[in-house]
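Researcher: Here's a chain I'd like modeled. Treat it as a single chain, no partners, no ligands.
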Amino acid sequence: MTEAFSMEGRTVLLTGAARGIGAALAVGLARAGARLCLVDSAPLEETREAVGEPCRTYRFDLADTGRIAGFVDRVRAEAGPLHVLVNNAGIARMQRFNEITPESWRAVFAVNTDAAFFTAQRVAEHMIADGIEGRIVQISSKNAAVAEAGLAHYNASKAAVELITKSLACELGVHGITCNAVAPGMIETGIAEAFPGDLEGLFAAWRERIPLRQEFGTPEDLLGAVLFLSGAASRYVTGTTITVDGGALADQLPRLRYLPPYRAGLPEKPRGDR
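Model: Modeled as a single isolated chain. Structure tokens:
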């Protein structure tokens, strides 16, 4: 089982690696033995320092979709065969529906959807040419399953990513290449702190909706799902999504606060004895 989850000998192309979820995934994948090719439009020095060697970094704007194929070709030429693609790059803009312009709509889709597809398209072609039974992992969102006000373009872009994932799974399975998604819930990344409105009240309301300790997740909480989908353990898993949200989507509303207090059926042990 250790080998099934090991990344030894695997080269991983990870997008959006400069901060947040991407930086945490880079560190975790490196510790599992992966050779990393990190991509972001922002500086990658901090992530590279945290990861160590072997690691290659690339400053590239994935919104420039017309250049993605050439960029992937360059990475393949420099790093050798690519075994895993983790499409993590993404942006979000908080705008009411009537504030979304064609420009802001296209900007969100360019990174979240177009780049996810065209990067996967080119990487998959290299995997086929190299005879690699590779892994493609898309970082989606809980917003692909349920809408959130003020994020119509983000919601739609992530829903599209989930159907892209299924579509690629259908076409790439014959080559032994799997394509799956990981859908984070509320993760402490700081990305929402620039949004307008009553964030304190919003975050408090969201915590009430999370069954698992009413806590937001951390970027590191996504690592287990990504490692599973990137390695040998998931060889017969494709076209699916693993949701990592503390159970938020499992509950229709925070009914627990309106129920009588929990009464233990058995004597509780001190936490240290569990």
